[in-house]
Amino acid sequence: MNTKLIALALLASTAVGIATFPTIQQANAVTTHKNTIVGIQKPSIEVVFVLDTTSSMSGLIQAAKEKIWSIASTMASAQQNPDIKMGLVAFRDRGDAYVTKVLDLSADLDSMYAQLMDFRAQGGGDGPESVNQALDDAINRISWSQDSDVYKVTFLIGDAPPHMDYSDDVKFPATLQKAKQKDIIVNTIQSGQQSNTTPVWQNIAQLGYGEFFQVENSGNAVAVSTPFDKKLSALAASLEDTRIFYGDAEQRELQKRKISAGKKLHSELSEAAKARRSTFNATASGKANLLGENELVDAISSGRIEFDDISVEELPASLQAMAPTEQKKLIETRAQRRDEIKKQIKQLSASRSKYIAEQIDTEAAMSSLDEKIYSAVKKQAKSKGLVYDSDRAEY
To answer: Which one of 14, 109, 366, 392 is least enclosed by Cβ atoms within 10 Å?
Structure first.
């Protein structure tokens, strides 16, 4: 009798095991799938510059125009190759041509930068500026991610304190409470030594869980021309020539704007700035800026889409006239050419970095706008899992 009971118990337990095995398998599959998604999710940085564009800021605005690509490259230098979006809030004061102008976060840094180039330092000269309005716009009008893993940061850059006498704006302590709720860090960079600005900038940084820095009105930016700049600039143009865009009429219009912004940068940037942009675009973080939306070579060569899935009407006219074998051959050639150019850019960029390291005054560089921003990013982004190995910013 006991033997029969044991046998029945064993059969029952085996049956339960067999019955539950598929469920366990499914659960493990779900867990594995989730882990895979988490594993491939790239870290992200969202950064917004809140920039005083009144007359007294002309030197620092020019420095910002020259250094945005260095800042982008510096942020991209984390081990994890983060995705990067940038935005801008330009501000002056009531009675000037504008109070604020808001450029929302975008991975298309070319288009954002093309608009930055149009900003001129004008107005002001009468003391406090509309800092409160600018901060409120930066925190509440920008399309910040709701993902708690994203490093979200603002740099307030200016030389004058806020108007605290306007009765109809939101004062910075209330705005910084909102920033805390949205997990946005607010850093302040004071341009110049104006004594009534310093304590307010320090207070804003403290309430914003950020850092306070001072730079000269010129920004103390590290500016070194190198023998590699011209070649890097030419390679940047060649890299862009490997792109083939596709899509409907609306998408083609966006692509035209991006191409137009790129042409503007090539015609107006200094060789050094174009070299910095070239370096950034060749990184994994710069891929989104280089390619934008609906870029055919990357889409096909990466396997994200099949050529047959694209309607003929979405292809550029030059490809529509080709036979399928010719189309595929062109894509392969462009992909190979792109890889070759990126390799050349990375090699020249390494030589450029080495040359700059030998030329700059390390002590002077530590007080530069470049280093102030890098030191804040390196410290703050660590809490989001971003690791920066270098002791210096990218120049």
So the answer is: 14
Residue 347 belongs to a domain: yes
Total structural domains within the chain: 2
Q: How confident is the model at residue 28 (pLDDT cuts 50, 70, 90)?
A: very low
Q: Quote the tokens at residue 224.
A: 């070194």
Both 135 and 196 in one domain: the answer is yes
34 domain residue, yes or no: no
177-213 pLDDT, tens digit each? 999 999 999 999 999 899 999 999 999 999 999 999 9
Checking if the pLDDT of 3 tops 50, the result is no
65 in the same domain as 159: yes
Q: Is residue 349 part of a domain?
A: yes
Regarding whether 354 and 324 lie in a shared domain, the answer is: yes
pLDDT in tens, 113-130: 998 888 887 776 667 999
- Please write the tens of the pLDDT for every residue from 343-362: 999 999 999 999 998 888 77
pLDDT for the residue numbered 118 = 86
CATH assignment at residue 136: 3.40.50.410
Range of the domain at 162: 44-221+361-384
248 in the same domain as 157? no
Q: How far apart are alpha carbons 183 and 151 in whole angstroms?
A: 8
171 domain-assigned: yes
| pLDDT at residue 35, as a whole number | 33
Question: Do residues 282 and 345 make contact, with C-beta atoms less than 8 angstroms apart?
Answer: yes
Same domain, 237 and 205: no
Residue 156 Cα to chain centre, angstroms: 17
Specify the amino acid at residue 209: Y
